[in-house]
Amino acid sequence: MKDRENMEKKDVFGLSLEALQDLLGTYGFKKFRAKQVFEWIYKKSVFEFSKMKNISKDDINLLEENFTILPANIKILREQISSDKLTRKVLIELPDGNSIETVLMSHDYGFSVCISSQVGCNMGCAFCASGLTGFVRNLSQAEILLQVYYFNQHLLPSGGFVSRVVVMGSGEPLLNFDAVLGALEFLHMETTLNMSYRNMTISTCGIIPGIEKLVIKKLPINLAISLHSARDDMRSELMPINKTYPFLEVIKAADAYAKATGRQVTYEYILIANKNDTLLDAELLSNALRFKNSSVNLIPANPVEEKGFKRPSPHTVERFLQVLKKNNINATVRREMGKDIDAACGQLRSKFIGKNS
Ligand code: SF4
User: Is residue 128 within 6 Å of ligand 1 at its C-beta?
Assistant: First the structure.
């Protein structure tokens, strides 16, 4: 009953200050009052009107009768915390019953959130659990912002806050371009989290038209490309999108992005035993990236049970890394976080759906 009542109310989360002032104005609220509401939500991560201390009781009643604030209108279906306590993953149920995964990571330099951009994904990357449940829908700008503010709300009492976001969770962000960019631009505003674009990363499987749109935007957002092989046949096997956007064309588009923004492009490379981890693979990758403003992030495979992929030995990983270094390619092996909590994208959701279907 409560859920149905909420569905009939307008949700104000993710509206710009001007849009909130216009909307609340139609209910008789003055602009300064709407600004106070805006500040409670986006500066203090308060999502219940009744906790907005400088708003009168009558105004609170009117707000509660007519509006909701999305983060107060969700359920947490599952939560996993890694044994080192540095990674916290939640499965959030949205008001329409769909669920999304979001991960909070604690680093020396602060907190970052890995956000999802779609419910499910239809890119079909072979190493990824998100595709197992198929694509359902794009997330709205508010649903993307929700993932950051959910954690911010929990961090604020102890003086913490989310200072970085990586759009690297479930979904292909460049196929939901407007909502993703809208959310990042929102987080950048001084009146919200004032987050630097340099602290934001978009990770794509290589949607060239989306990269081209980013070139036009020319914001200093970090771009990460999931490459995973510099052989067309192997990359097509691991990432079917390679048949539409071959990796050499993707690298060309990413290079244009690096030139337009001055930002170094990161290439993600999951090392899968006996698939893409040979010396020849390392040489081909070096050739493809030679003289590019780029770096390579090697990620020893996080096994996805359903696919049977294995992780290469530490010796193989080191050997691959040394070939890249010898060829003057910037490369590092990613520090693993949350391996014990299904941190690879889509794993928690696919397990939850599997158990509840
Ligand atoms: S890796 Fe990313 S693009 Fe590929 S299936 Fe998973 S969520 Fe989709």
Answer: yes
Tokens at 186, concatenated: 């929102």
Which residue ranges does the chain devote to CATH 3.20.20.70?
A: 74-356
Which amino acid appears at position 121 of this protein? C
Residue type, 348: L
Cα of 130 from ligand 1 centre, angstroms: 6
- Confirm or reject: Cβ of 171 under 6 Å from ligand 1: yes
Query: In the annotation, is 345 catalytic?
Result: yes
Architecture of domain 2-72: Orthogonal Bundle (1.10)
User: Looking at 101, 143, 172, 268, which residue is catalytic?
Assistant: 101
pLDDT tens-place values along the chain, 357 residues long: 556 566 689 999 999 999 999 999 999 999 999 999 999 999 999 999 999 999 999 999 999 999 999 999 999 999 999 999 999 999 999 999 999 999 999 999 999 999 999 999 999 998 887 767 789 999 999 999 999 999 999 999 999 999 999 999 999 999 999 999 999 999 999 999 999 999 999 999 999 999 999 999 999 999 999 999 999 999 999 999 999 999 999 999 999 999 999 999 999 999 999 999 999 999 999 999 999 999 999 999 877 666 678 899 999 999 999 999 999 999 999 876 555 655 455 555 555 545 444
Range 74-356 has CATH code 3.20.20.70:
yes
Residue in 121, 125, 205, 345 annotated catalytic: 345
DSSP three-state, residue 169: coil
**Cβ-based neighbour number of residue 11 at 10 Å:** 17
CA 200 to CA 221: how far, in whole Å?
Answer: 6
**Which is the closest atom of ligand 1 to the Cα of 239?**
4
Q: Count the Cβ atoms, other than its own, within 10 Å of residue 322.
A: 13
Task: Yes or no: say if 323 and 286 are a contact pair by the CB < 8 Å rule.
Answer: yes
CA distance 192 to 180: 16
Rounded to whole angstroms, the Cα distance separating 44 from 152 reads 9
Checking DSSP bridges between strand 137-138 and strand 118-119, what pairing results, if any? Answer: antiparallel
Residues of each domain in the chain carrying CATH 1.10.150.530: 2-72
Is 336 labeled as catalytic in the residue annotation? Answer: no
